Amino acid sequence: MNQDKIPQATAKRLPLYYRVLQHLSESGKQRISSSELGEVVKIDSATIRRDLSHLGALGKKGYGYHVDRLLSFLRNVLNQDELTKVMLVGVGNLGTALLKYNFLKNNNMKIVKAYDTNAHKVGTTIGETLIFSIQQLETDNHDDITVAILAVPAEGAQSVADVLVSTGVSGILNFTPVRLSVPNDIRVHHIDLSVELQTLVYFLNNYPLKEPGGE
Amino acid sequence: MNQDKIPQATAKRLPLYYRVLQHLSESGKQRISSSELGEVVKIDSATIRRDLSHLGALGKKGYGYHVDRLLSFLRNVLNQDELTKVMLVGVGNLGTALLKYNFLKNNNMKIVKAYDTNAHKVGTTIGETLIFSIQQLETDNHDDITVAILAVPAEGAQSVADVLVSTGVSGILNFTPVRLSVPNDIRVHHIDLSVELQTLVYFLNNYPLKEPGGE
DNA sequence: CTCTGTGAAGAAGTTCACAGCA
DNA sequence: TGCTGTGAACTTCTTCACAGAG
């Protein structure tokens, strides 16, 4: 109901709702209830209603939510009208996977530049993205890019992050295991593959699980 | 202090502490305080003390924690004495990245088998892992493997997951955007790359951030 | 002194349960 | 009737602040 500030936990779920609603809309679905949506995304229906209520009164009592209306509302909330340009540093296997990942189709995001140290890769194109030498990272103009994906080996992570900060990015999606030191107006999100895997294993060994099958 | 049940939030941080302590130990560090460790991992020192207190009284007042003692305690808690065997389904760019990722070195985990549909890949080896045909996934014996990584295209995700469940895995690390339907004694953790990227962008646009630079 | 371990307070997130609108 | 939106309860997590051990 309030537009004050959406809780972080809610914010993390919005992109998920958005994508599911896109699929529902494409397949011609007109209306959906919170419990039906909850089954698809495996989230309790009360949580979904609470989440959506933070955005405004988007549903109709006795009816549910109008898929396209909700979708266009979320598109607006998530800034999906505007293309988000992203750069990538480190074109190894992971970086390549990200370049081929179609962020554009569902999310209106695009990796517009990539940087790597490997001279064989520089000048080539993967997906639609041209690869530049890492030296150019410092000198290129990045005024229109505020987000970077960091997918370099751990050894170089902090120093590349320092350069990224100096180029003016305000967010870094960090795939390296290094906990980066950055000024505290820069947001860093971590995706730490071995921590994720190890956490899963730990939970399997220690949390017997009758609960829902979730995250 | 209690061994009852470690909070989930704590459990998710243990692998991180473990890795950092490994590095500290390797570099010869003998003792560390919660605030020093907190600076490295960017977590409040009180949270670290609370986390570690769930495992037992591992520190010494006025001294801090003995690095190697803490490390070997965590090694035990995280089952790091035993090799965890993992299988991978889907050897695209992401799957390849995971195969080359050295889970073994720091985490005593190993991808022992990989499956793909691509006949050109079947029979080859990436890293140290031999690639099998996806048909064999159903027929192979996987008694010693309880965790699978799912890195196939979205279209096939649910049906591969069904097969994985039938082979007896109890945990799936799911890199596809599909929210899998599985029996509720199976644990699924999601790593959804476009959701992560979109969430970061949303936070950049909406959460001005004076807070620490963190996740 | 220094630094842990923890009671107590606070903040954040989830779920229940139901009034009330369509 | 079938559903949302939301008070209120509950659960989980974080942080403060300090007694007390070394």
Helices and strands in order:
Two copies of one chain form a homodimer.
Chain A: H1 8-26, E1 31-32, H2 34-41, H3 45-53, E2 59-60, E3 64-66, H4 67-77, E4 84-89, H5 93-100, H6 103-107, E5 109-116, E6 125-126, E7 129-133, H7 135-139, E8 147-150, H8 154-167, E9 171-174, E10 187-190, H9 193-206
Parallel strand pairs in A: 4-5, 4-8, 5-7, 8-9, 9-10
Antiparallel strand pairs in A: 1-3, 2-3, 6-7
Helix pairs in contact in A: 1-4, 2-3
Chain B binds a DNA duplex (22 and 22 nucleotides) through α1, α3 and β2.
* Coarse structural class of chain A: alpha/beta
Query: How many E strands of chain A?
Result: 10
Tell me the fraction of residues in β-strands of chain A, as a range: 15-25%
Distance between the first and last residues' Cα of chain A: 28 Å
Number of helices of chain A: 9
Mean pLDDT across all amino acids of chain A: 93
Q: What profile does the largest beta sheet of chain A have? A: 7 strands, mixed
Oligomer: homodimer
Radius of gyration of chain A: 20 Å
Shape of chain A: globular
Please list the strands of the largest sheet of chain A in the order they lie side by side: 6-7-5-4-8-9-10
